[in-house]
Amino acid sequence: MTFQPTIADEANAPRRTVLPILEARSLTKQYRMPGEIVEAVRGVSLSVMPGEFVALMGPSGSGKSTLLQLLGGLDQPSSGEVLLEGEPIGRLSDSDATRLRRERTGFVFQSFNLVPLMNVVENVGLPFTIAGQDPRSHELAARIREAIALVDLTGKERHRPDQLSAGEQQRVAVARAIVTRPALLFADEPTGNLDFRTGLDILGALWRTCMERGQTIVLVTHDAKAAAYADRVFVVGDGQIQDEIVLGRRSDHAAAPLIARLALLGL
Amino acid sequence: MRGLVRYAWRALAARRARTLLTIVGISLGVGVLVAALGVDAGLDASIDRTVASMVGRADLRVTAFEETGLSAGTLEQLGAVPGVALTAPAIERKTFLASQAGRPVETAPVTILGIDASAEPRVRDLALARGVALAPSDDASALVTETLAASDGLELGDDLQILGAGAPLTVKITGVLRGDGPELGSGGRTVVVPIRTAQLLGVADGDTAPTQVGGVTRVDVVLAAGAPVDQVAASIGQALTLQPYVLSRPQDVASSLRASTLDIRATMALLAAITLFAAAILILNTMAMTVVERIRELGLLRAAGAQRSQIVRVVVTQALVLGVAGSGLGIVVGTLLAYLAAAWLRASGQLAIEGPVIGPWAVFAGIASGVGITLVAAVEPARRAAAVSPVAVLRVRSDTSRLVRAHTGWLVVVVAVIGTTAVLLLPGGATDLAIPARAVGVYVLLLVAVLLMPALLAPLARLAGLPFAVLLRLEERLARAAIRRDPGRTTLTVGALVIGLAMVVALASVAGSARVSATAWLADVVPGDEILTAIAPAPVGPGGIDTQLSSIDGVALATPIASFDLAYASTRLEAVAIRGADFLADGRLDFTAGDRTAALNALDGTGAIVLPASRAARLGVGVGDTMAVATSQGLVNLKVVGLVARSFPGRTGDAVLVGWGDATAKLGVVGADAFAVRYAPGRRADAQPQVEALARQLALTASPVSAVSGAVGDALDRLFGLLDLLALAAVVIAALGIVNTLSMDTLERVREIGMLRAAGMSRIQVWRSVLVEAGILGAMGGLVGSVTGVLVGVLLSGGGGAAGPMSVVPWPTVALAIVLGIALAMLAAAQPARLAGRVPIPMAVRGE
After folding, report:
1. Is residue A226 part of a domain?
2. Would the N or C end of chain A have less CB density within 10 A of its end CB?
3. Are A107 and B846 inside 8 Å of each other by CB?
C-alpha cells in the first residue's frame, strides 16, 4: 500500500469501501464551572477508517484532548454518540468501559507512567497481567517480543524504567499500548515531554505500527511536524472541527504541505 | 513575612484530612505522656495522703523485726531516750470476725489495730464518721471503718466477736472511722481496739495474760520540741539493745511506698516516650510529604526572591500550628486517659491511687513536649525544602519529590531529644541506674530497627508481599513498586508501626517471662499441690496444723513455711523457714552449688542457710561462707550450705532459706504462714475435701497451686492490659501515618493509576492494589516490630531468665502483631484506596 503526499486528494486517501472503525456523531462535552457552563467539545462529527492514521491538531485549550478522551471511552459525552466498530461506547457502564479499554483500545500519553519496579517486558505485558492472563505464556510472550521489536527496544527487555532514556520509556509505553493489538490506538501528545529527535523516534514507531500492522491510530498534537505523520488531520479549534486535511500516506513525513495548508487557513 | 505565614496556614487548610490526622497523632503522643504524668502525680498524692494518715505527727517509727514484736523492755528503753516526748505503740494482727446471726456472711479477714488510746490522738487524728473515739479506760470498745461497716452490716452499738488464740473476744462498736481508715493494705477492713485488747487476742486459753504491753508491732515516736531528729535517731540506735528493730522516718515510709510503684511508673514513662517517638515519626513524615507536595510552589517562592530562612519559617510555622493544636488536644486526651488508667489500676488492685492529678506541670510538660518534638521533627524537612535550588525544581518536569525526600538520619536527633525528655520525666525515685539504662537500650533498639528499614526494604517487601502475590500478583507488584518509590517515606510509615507493635510484643514478652518465672517457681520450689495460708503464725509440730494435715488419709506431705526477715550486715534479708527433709522427699529446689541432699539435711540441723544464686551473687558469699545475722539473742552464725536457682519470692527478690529448727529457736519465728500439702498419687479427690474442711475450721485459706498460678497470671494480665492500651496508642498513631502516606501515594501515583485504568485496569483492581500496599506495609511493620519487640522484651525482662530469650517469645502475640499490623494498615487504607479507585482517567492523564 503506497500513498502519495497529495493534499485533499480524495483519490489517494485510504479506501473507504469498508465501514468506519470509529465514528463520532454530533459530539458535545460540557463542564459545569461556578457560574458558567464551559463547552469543551461542540457538535463534532468525524469518522476514522480501519488502518488509518488520523491526527487531531489544534492549539492548547482547543478541546482536542477532550475529544480524544470521548473517542477513546475515557470520558462520557454530554450529548451525541461515539461508535467503535459500529457499537455505541458513549454510555457504557464502568465495567464495560474497562473491558473496552482492556480489549479494544490502547493509549499513549504525554507522561510515560511506567511501573518503576517492572522491567520492559513486564511493563509491556501489563495489559495481559491486568486482564488476568499470564504474560509468560508462549503466545503472549511472542506478542510482547513482537511489540518490543516494533518499537526497536530489542535487547533492553530486562531494563527497568530508570535505566532507560525518556524516549525509550515512551517507546515502552507505545509497545504497551499496541501489545493487545487494539482496534484503535489513541496517542495524546506522546512527544510532549521529549526533545525533537526523540519525538521523531516515537512518531516513527507509531507510523511503523500503522504501516506494518495496519494499526488504526488517533493522534492528538499541537505540533504540525507530528501531525504530518498522519494520513488525515482534523484541525480542532474552539471545540469544533475547523478543517479536515487529507495528507495521504507518505514515507517522508514532510510537514511543509501541512504547514502551508494551515497557513492558508490562517492557523 | 505575614504573607508567608498566611501561606503556611493555607497549605495546612488545603489538606484538611492530613492536617487533622497529624494533629490527632500528636495528641495521642502527648495524651499518653500527660496520662503517665497524671498517674504519677496521682500516685504521689495518694502516697503522701497515706503516709500522713499512717504516720501522722510522728517524727520516727520503730518497727518490730521479729514476729514476736517489740517487748515491754524495748518500749521502756525507747521512752527513756533523751528527746523522745511521746511513744505511741500499736499492735497489728490479722484475724476473722466470728459469724453472728443477722449479719451478712463475710469470710475475708480483718486487721485488728490495737492503739494506746491516750497517746494515739497526739500522733494522728482518726477521723470519725460517727460515734465517739476510744476511751483510754474502756478495753471493750472498738472502732470500725465505714468500709467494713458497709460490707459486714455493722452499726454503732453492735457487738463484735473477734477470733483470737483463745476464746473469741467481744467488743462493742462505739465509733465508725471515715472511709478505709488508717491501715494501708487492709482493704478498709480494719477494727481499731485498745492495745490491751489486741494483746489479749494473742493469749491462748489457759495462758496468763501479760501484765505489761508487749508484742508491739510498731511504735510511733514524737520528739520534744527542738530535738534534732538525727541526734535522737542515733540515741535510739544506742539505747535499744534488746531486740532487732527497724527505725524509719516518714520520708522513708513514703520512699518505700514510692519504690513499690517505681516499675509501673517507669514503664508508663517509657511508653509515653515511645508513643512520642511514634508521633514524632508521624510529624516528620507529614512535614516531609507536605514539602514534597509543595516543592514547586516553594521553588517558585525561592525564584520570586524568598530567602531560605523564609522557606524554613513557612515549614516551621506549619509545624508550630500542628504542634500547638495537637498538644492542646493531647491535654484533653491525656486527662481522659489518666482517669481511665487510674480507674484501671484501682480496680485491678495493683496500686492504691485515688485519682490522677493533672497539674500545671503535666500540662506544661505535655505542651512543651508536643510543640518541641513537632518543631524538632520539622527541622529536617524545612531545611531540605530551603536547600533545594529553585532552578532545579522548576527545570525538572517530573518527580521533583526526589529532591526533597525524607531522610531518616534526622530520626537520630529526634530520638535524642525524646530520649532526653523521657529521662527527665522518669519517676524521681528512679535512683537505680538500670531503669534509665534499659530505657536508653529500648530507644536504641527501636531506632536501629527503624534506621535499618531502608536497607531491608526490598527483601522485606518481597517477603511481606508473598501471601498477597499468591492471589493478587499484579496488585502485589504494583504495591511493591509504590512502596519502593520513596524509601524514606516508607521507612517512616512502617517505622511508627514497628515501634507500636514492638512495644505490644515486648510487653507480652515481659508478661510471658514473668508468667514463665512464676510457673517455674511454683514447679521448682513449692512442695505441694495445695497451699494453705494463715493470717497469723500457725502452730507447727506435735498437735500443730502440719500434724493434723498429715494425719488426713491421702495426704502424703504437709510441710510448714514461714517468711520473716533477717538482719544481716545492716540490711534486711528476706528469709523463709522450711523443713529440709520435706523438700528432699518432694524433689523440690534446684541446687546450682553444694550437694542437694547434704544441704537440705543440714537445714534440719542447726546453723545452715541456703541462698538463691542471685542473692548470693549480690551479697558476695558462696558455699562454705558464714553469715552472721543479728537476733534478739545476739549474733547467730549461719553457714552457707548450698545455692539454689530459685527460692520463694520476697519483696526484693528471692528469699534465703533456713531450717525450721533455727528459725523457731534462734530467729524469732513463732509459727507458719503457710502449709504446702502434697496428696498421695491418685488420692487427691478423696483427700482434698477433708483438707479444705480442716482449713475452714482452722481459719486457713486453701488455694490449689494451679489457682496460685492462675492468680499470678490474672494479676499480670490486668497490669499488662493497661500497658498494652498505652502501647496501642503508638499503633493508632502509626495507622494515622499510613492513612497520610497512602493518600499521598495515591496523589503522587495519580498519573500511573490513570494509565493503568486506561490500559484496562478496573476500579476494584486499583482499590485492591492500594489495600495490598497497605497490607504489605502492615506485614513489614508486624515482622520487624515482632523481632524488635522480642529483643526489647529480652532487654526489659533482663535476658529472658534461665531458660533463655527464646523461652519468652510470645508467639501468639507475635502472630497477633502481624495480623494486627496488616488489618490496621488495610483499614487505614480504606479511604485512600477508595479515592484511588475513583481517580478520573481524563484528569489523571492530562498532559502538563
Report:
1. yes
2. N
3. no
